[in-house]
Amino acid sequence: MKSALLENNIHFYNMKRLFTLLLLMMAAVALDAQEPIIGKYKKALVIGAHPDDPESMCGGTMLKLKEQGCEVVCVYFTSGEGGIPGKTHEEAAAIRRQEALNACEVMGVRAVFMTQIDGDSQINKERYKEMKDLIDMEKPDMVITHWPIDAHRDHRVCSVLVYDAWRLSKHSFDLYYGEVMTGMQTQMFTPTVYVNIDSTVELKRKAYLCHESQGTAANIEKWHEVIGRMRGHEFHCTHAEAFVKHVWRSSDMLDR
Ligand SMILES: [Zn+2]
Questions:
Q1: Which of 37, 42, 46, 119 has CA 20 to 30 A from 144's CA?
Q2: How far is the CA of 50 from the centre of ligand 1 (A)?
Q3: Which of 141, 130, 145, 131 is closest to 41 using CA atoms?
Q4: pLDDT per residue of the chain (256 residues) written in tens, 0 to 9
Q5: What's the pLDDT score for residue 7?
Q6: Residue 175 β-bridge partners
Q7: Residue 215's pLDDT is what?
């Protein structure tokens, strides 16, 4: 005959196991729910303000999207005209466009260059239209661009123009915001969606390294890979990219 103490211990042990199992199930569901990007879309546009922004923001996710059969287009809002000290705008743009083309070749994605100027990007009626026209022409079902609260003016302008196109299109594509050099550039960013990029991080790195004018591997480690490892830590893997999905909750009556 079992003692009351032994029965209590068995009961406690079973409850503890059940509780642990429930926690594991909840964690699995939560992790699964946090990665809805991969396998969901047919065509993705990644719109970054400068050559190297799309790659650092979400190169690993672009590669994973592609693996799942999604067409990926890398859109460079400017050609990085102001990004090489000692070079004229024309010289810097030529170098950085070639670097971007090299990076896109590594990733196997198509590059598109818009006509804004690095350090002098504009918001006006024509620029709103230009962004809307590009997105209308490409017809993506998802777009990733910069989180709008950012220390870099070009990042902010790029984000606002994409947001406006999304609104005017009646939210015809899913809109995600990503981060670049969080703390230095992206500010107040709390992700809602994570993508485990452990399987693509090496190729992402190779693509990023095509941007030779933007520094060495040590710079990449210092400014970008540290963010990937932080997000990986949050998502229970080694390297991750993180996003905020913009969910529109208004009714049609208010949607204007
Ligand atoms: Zn940038």
A1: 119
A2: 5
A3: 141
A4: 455 555 665 555 565 664 554 454 444 434 444 557 999 999 999 999 999 999 999 999 999 999 999 999 999 999 999 999 999 999 999 999 999 999 999 999 999 999 999 999 999 999 999 999 999 999 999 999 999 999 999 999 999 999 999 999 999 999 999 999 999 999 999 999 999 999 999 999 999 999 999 887 777 888 889 999 999 999 999 999 999 999 987 655 555 4
A5: 60
A6: 143
A7: 80
Token couple for 84: 């090489």
Q: How far is the CA of 155 from the centre of ligand 1 (A)?
A: 6
Q: Report the amino acid identity of residue 186.
A: T
CA of 27 to the centre of ligand 1 (A): 34
Main-chain dihedrals φ then ψ at residue 33, nearest 5 degrees: -65, -25
- 135 in Cβ contact with 173 (< 8 Å): yes
The Cα 141–Cα 109 span in angstroms is: 16
Q: Which of 204, 238, 194, 198 is nearest to 36 (CA)?
A: 194
Assess contact for 72 and 62: CB atoms under 8 A.
yes
- Please tell me the pTM assigned to this model: 0.85
Task: Compute the distance from residue 151 Cα to the ligand 1 centre, in Å.
Answer: 10
For 36-248, CATH number? 3.40.50.10320
The separation between the first and the last C-alpha atoms of the chain, rounded to the nearest angstrom, is 74
Residue 36's pLDDT is 76
